[in-house]
Design brief:
487 residues, alpha/beta, Rossmann fold, Helicase, Ruva Protein, domain 3, Zinc Finger, Delta Prime, domain 3, 5-stranded parallel beta sheet, 3-stranded mixed beta sheet, 12 strands
Length: 487
C-alpha cells in the first residue's frame, strides 16, 4: 500500500527534526539527564512538528535501548509506537472530545499504571479547543499526575490556553520553518524518491506552505504524482494555480516602467487562466517589500537573501514606497469591491511611477539652483529654463491624469513648489469644489494649505441700534478718533 511522503519521511528522532533546534535540544537533554517534566505545552503554527515531536519524546522515554537520549527505533516499544499500536500512548483530539465528561473519563483512566512501557503518555491535539469547564477539570490532574504519566498539550492557538493550565506546564514554542530549510528537506526527499526537480519549483512550494513542513511535503507528493515524477515550475503553476516568482517579477517590472497596457493584460490573463489572484497579489507585495528593504539598508546582505533582481532594478525608493502604498490600497479596497477591479485601479494609478524623481535628483536640482547667481547671464538663462522644465514635470503628471476642469482649477490657484512637492493654497470655496482627500491619495506630491477667512470686525452697540431703528443697511464703516461713523 502506498505511503504518503508526509508519513514516510516523518522524523523518528530528535536529530531528524528540521528547523526546531531549541525544542529538540531541550527535550533531548531532559531525556538524557532524566529531567522530563510531567506536563508540556507544544505551541506553534500548523505543520511545524508539534505532534511529531510529542511522539519522538514518547519513544525516547519508553525506549528499551536508548542511545544518549535518542530512541533506538528498533526495540519492541519503538516499533509499536511507530505502528500506532502502543497501549500506553493515548492521542486525544481535543477538538471533538472537548467537553467536561471527556476529561472526566481521561482523569479516571490516568490512575492506571502503564501496561507495557515505562511511561503512559497522553497527547491532546488542538488543546485550545477544550471548554473552560474541561480545562478546570484537568487542573488537578496536571498539577499532581500519577507517577510515570506524561501530558503533552499541542496547540496552534497558545493564547487561548487559560493561565492556570499554562502555569502547570513547561512551554515549548515551535516557530515557522525557513524556506531554505524546507527546500533542503524537499531536495532530500526528491533524491530518495528519484524525482526530477527544479530548485525554483521547490522554493515556490516552500513559499506557499508558509513555514509548515507537513504542507510542503504533502504538496511535493501531489506535484510529483501530477507531473509523473517531475517537479518543475510549469507543473507547480498548473497544479497549485499560482505563478512562479519570475513571472511575479516580470509583472513588477511592467508596473515600475509605467507599461499600464501590458500590466492590465497580464492581470486579465491571470484571471482568465484561473490563477489565485489573492495569492498572486500577496506575492507581488512580498517582492516589492524585499525591494524596499534592499534599497533602504546599507548592507542588505546581512538581513536578506539578495538576488540579481534586487540589484538590477534601477528605481528610486520613493517610487517603490508609492507602489507599496498602491498595493496595500488595493487590498483595502477589495473589502468593498471585487479584488480584480481593485487591482486594475492600482495598476492605472501606477502609471506615474516612472515620473517620480529620486531624492538624489531633487537634491541635485536644488544645489544647481543655488549656483545660478554665480554663473554668466547666458548660462543662468539656460539653467532657469531647465529648472522651469523640471517644475513642469509634476504639473504634466496632473494634466495627464486629471479632468481638464479640475486641472485648470488647480492651475489657477496660488501655488509653490519645493522639495519635490507642490503646495497649493485653497479657500473654503475650493474645498467644496475639489475632492482634496482623493487628490492627495492619488498624487502624494500634492499638499493643500487651507486659508482661514478673515474675521469680520464686530459692530459697536450704538451702530447696531441705529441699524435696527431705521432698518438701515451698512454700506461702509470706519472709526474716527474713537467715534463711530456709519454711513
Amino acid at each position: 500500500m502506498y505511503v504518503p511522503f508526509a508519513r514516510k519521511y516523518r522524523p523518528k528522532k530528535f536529530s531528524e527534526l528540521v528547523g526546531q533546534d531549541v525544542a529538540s535540544k531541550v527535550l533531548l537533554n531532559a531525556v538524557r539527564l532524566n529531567k522530563v517534566a510531567h506536563a508540556y505545552i507544544f505551541a506553534g503554527p500548523r505543520g511545524t512538528g508539534k505532534t511529531t515531536t510529542a511522539r519522538i519524546l514518547t519513544r525516547a522515554i519508553n525506549c528499551l535501548k536508548p542511545v544518549d537520549g535518542e530512541p533506538c527505533g528498533e526495540c519492541e516499544n519503538c516499533v509499536a509506537i511507530e505502528r500506532g499500536a502502543f497501549p500506553d500512548l493515548i492521542e486525544i483530539d481535543a477538538a471533538s472530545n472537548r467537553g467536561i465528561d471527556d476529561i472526566r473519563n481521561l482523569r479516571d483512566a490516568v490512575s492506571y499504571t502503564p501496561i507495557k512501557g515505562k511511561y503512559k503518555v497522553y497527547i491532546l491535539d488542538e488543546a485550545h479547543m477544550l471548554t473552560k469547564e474541561a480545562f478546570n477539570a484537568l487542573l488537578k490532574t496536571l498539577e499532581e499526575p500519577p507517577p510515570r504519566t506524561l501530558f503533552i498539550l499541542c496547540t496552534t492557538e497558545y493564547e487561548k490556553i487559560i493561565p492556570t493550565i499554562l502555569s502547570r506546564c513547561q512551554r515549548i514554542i515551535f516557530s515557522k520553518l525557513k524556506e531554505e530549510d524546507i527546500v533542503n528537506y524537499l531536495k532530500f526527499i526528491c533524491e530518495k524518491e528519484n524525482l526530477q526537480c527544479e530548485e525554483r519549483a521547490l522554493f515556490t512550494i516552500a513559499r506557499v506552505s508558509d513555514g509548515g513542513m507537513r504542507d510542503a511535503v504533502s504538496l511535493l507528493d501531489q506535484a510529483a504524482t501530477f507531473g509523473e515524477g517531475k517537479v518543475n515550475e510549469q507543473i507547480i503553476e498548473e497544479f497549485l494555480g499560482i505563478l512562479s516568482q519570475e513571472k511575479v517579477r516580470e509583472f513588477i517590472k511592467l508596473l515600475l516602467s509605467g507599461d499600464t497596457d501590458n500590466a492590465l493584460g497580464f492581470l486579465r490573463d491571470i484571471r482568465d487562466k484561473g490563477y489565485n489572484l489573492s495569492i498572486f497579489w500577496d506575492s507581488v507585495e512580498e517582492e516589492v517589500r524585499d525591494l524596499i528593504l534592499y534599497k533602504s539598508l546599507k548592507e542588505p546582505e546581512k538581513v536578506m537573501q539578495v538576488e540579481p533582481f534586487h540589484r538590477e532594478t534601477p528605481i528610486s525608493l520613493n517610487a517603490l514606497l508609492y507602489l507599496e502604498k498602491l498595493i496595500n490600497t488595493a487590498r483595502i479596497e477589495s473589502r468593498t469591491m471585487d479584488l480584480f477591479r481593485a487591482c486594475e485601479i492600482a495598476i492605472i494609478r501606477s502609471s506615474i511611477i516612472k515620473n517620480i524623481l529620486p531624492i538624489e535628483e531633487l537634491i541635485r536640482v536644488l544645489r544647481e539652483g543655488e549656483k545660478i547667481a554665480d554663473k554668466p547671464q547666458e548660462v543662468q538663462i539656460a539653467q532657469e529654463t531647465q529648472t522651469e522644465s523640471q517644475k513642469e514635470t509634476l504639473w504634466q503628471i496632473l494634466q495627464n491624469n486629471l479632468k481638464k476642469i479640475d486641472f485648470e482649477m488647480l492651475r489657477r490657484l496660488p501655488w509653490e513648489e519645493k522639495e519635490g512637492k507642490i503646495f497649493i493654497k485653497v479657500g473654503k470655496k475650493e474645498i467644496k469644489s475639489l475632492e482634496i482627500d482623493k487628490l492627495k491619495a492619488k498624487f502624494p506630491f500634492l499638499e493643500f494649505l487651507v486659508e482661514e477667512e478673515e474675521k469680520k470686525e464686530e459692530l459697536p452697540e450704538s451702530v447696531k441700534t441705529i441699524k435696527t431703528l431705521f432698518n438701515a443697511k451698512i454700506i461702509s464703516y470706519e472709526r474716527d478718533k474713537g467715534k463711530d461713523n456709519p454711513s
